[in-house]
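=== Structure Prediction Worksheet ===
Name of assembly: unnamed complex
Input type: mixed (protein and possibly other molecules)
Chain count: three
Listed entries:
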Amino acid sequence: MIAKEELQGQIERAARAVRETNPMAGSITNTVTINFVANAQIAVGGSAAMVYLPDEGEFLAAAGGATYINVGTLFPIYEETLPRTAKKLAELGKPWVLDPVAIGIGELRTQLLSCFKAYKPTVIRGNASEVIALANLWGLAGDGGASKVRGVDSTEAVDEAREAAVALARYTGGAVAVSGEDDLVTDGETVAISHGGSPFMAQITGSGCSLGGVCAVFTACAETPLAAALAGVNVYNLAGARAGARVQATGSFQTAFIDELYLATPEDIATNPFDLEEA
Amino acid sequence: MIAKEELQGQIERAARAVRETNPMAGSITNTVTINFVANAQIAVGGSAAMVYLPDEGEFLAAAGGATYINVGTLFPIYEETLPRTAKKLAELGKPWVLDPVAIGIGELRTQLLSCFKAYKPTVIRGNASEVIALANLWGLAGDGGASKVRGVDSTEAVDEAREAAVALARYTGGAVAVSGEDDLVTDGETVAISHGGSPFMAQITGSGCSLGGVCAVFTACAETPLAAALAGVNVYNLAGARAGARVQATGSFQTAFIDELYLATPEDIATNPFDLEEA
Amino acid sequence: MIAKEELQGQIERAARAVRETNPMAGSITNTVTINFVANAQIAVGGSAAMVYLPDEGEFLAAAGGATYINVGTLFPIYEETLPRTAKKLAELGKPWVLDPVAIGIGELRTQLLSCFKAYKPTVIRGNASEVIALANLWGLAGDGGASKVRGVDSTEAVDEAREAAVALARYTGGAVAVSGEDDLVTDGETVAISHGGSPFMAQITGSGCSLGGVCAVFTACAETPLAAALAGVNVYNLAGARAGARVQATGSFQTAFIDELYLATPEDIATNPFDLEEA
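=== Predicted Assembly ===
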């Protein structure tokens, strides 16, 4: 298990490298929150590019520092685009982030999410039920029923996905981030619980999708998948808490949240409160 | 004709039930305003999900409390998706809202809007010319030329669609909402004229689309289509008036408008000024 | 070379005509910034409509005062939609604006951008590298390497595209706008350098895309392509500078920027600082 100080150093260096090198993280993502994803990626220091076609996905996979695949609103062409892009990423050994949003809805989504097992995403980002469902789809689910209670600060929902998240991370060799009131991030060895955020984050569309896009930006510069995913989760908890403290409603929250992503320093991101445990 | 007090009670109960039960209203809607639709639905207390593929539309039809179909930016796959989704909704007896935006542009749009006649949407939401065109397309147009003047407070445009709206509502057994300076909502028996709003609402994209999505949320909980549609129209007039009073321009208006949707109470929504007339 | 006072008069008249006649400029544009494009078009006084299908593109080409084609996120159907729409525009002699965003990514994009050569867009809007790449694709590139230094106020990047921009404008008979720290607009005879803007404009997604959409609105009313393109570039530099001066971060900038587009008067737009040179 990594020491907290060492992990904080990795996060701070990743966040600083992103600000300094402006890495491009291409996305194939849903149309609902695509603008929010791009603006969040830019706000933390990255560069965004979105495509739909197969050869364009392969191009971005090769050209970008990392890639983000979010299966929110599938188009028919994704039957070609997503496997070809994921295959290219695996061939090139490039980092990528998967958001298995709405897993379980429709045949194509299941087919695509199944195929991604072979290409091992660097980071998987989802809510508790998505992470559990993906572990089940990939045949990695253990006996998750025995260990639901983890302490007062964990929300039951996130905590219920702990075993699934650990199993997924051990399978991919990457990291898994489970979003909730407190957020869980694991690489299969260490479990980090990141604190902060705001209830407003669940009352706008795209908090989760854009976090996936931001994690992709950090994977382009981070030393480990765990540091990348926790950098993303930390800056979301930090920006969410700061934005939530100065607004009364959800429209203003969206604006303030992008502002706070933009204003967060590498030190801020590294020192957002989190706890570490053995997986 | 329903008594005003009774209708206000229905609206207040619907708005309260939405806040308490967070009903999911899936959407197949245009890419221009899809983010606004989702955030507006969430702001009034609902839950949003958007898809494009046929089996996913059927899934949301079955899983949601209501569904929203907006034909703004058609994709080729909609030739399958929209009829299958509407058919599933009709089979299940689930409420749904149709926005016939841009009726008249292109062959597929006409084909799809024609096919919806068989599936009788619970609420139709459009501007005056869209409502008139839909009544014509469905062969429901009467002699609309004889009764254009309805009083000082009605805008001519909305008022010109009154007969078409009444005819559509009588055909579907649901409600029709016509957007304009004052808004007309009818179930074919009662005509409600709802007041408020802001000129800024016509100077941003998506006021109408997102109102359709919000009406869908209310149909999931309302006792009648009329109460659902008027709840949506009332909260839009209320939030528009409040937001418009505190901003100078359209960018700030968008933010303030979502804030006011979020802050509106069930009592606020029920008591927004409206008049009732015999249809 | 046109006199500055005459060009300012054309800009002011175009901006005033847009506010008075609310011209519709249809768009086929990317899903990332489609909402921003629409709201920016409306903010300056135009009307927006977006489509994807071939016959709908032709419909908007015929119905609108101008059309905007942005190849940001291509869908498969664009193989039919974009050539048919551009052909219709050329047949009707209607003004249109091309944004060759991400030129070089994928086969379809190259194929479509090549085909547009025959249909001569009224305005081409891009960043320096996109403008250079388009001139190369169309076989119009001269010896651009010899004249990179143009003075202290020009950014090197925009200035490197000067010859490509002039060559494109001479070929199309229209105007070309190159976006950067200072913006270059040319009709092949006159080169205008427009000043203002904000570093925040490069830190949000859609500054360039929405500028293309706004230029399309102005082409519907302007006496010349140069006046239309410079009207768009001037209002962007003006609104960017005003918005940037009153915010600290990128979320607030987006809101303030739309506000300032909305509040800019025809006089403001005409008198935003710009210099003229012989091409």
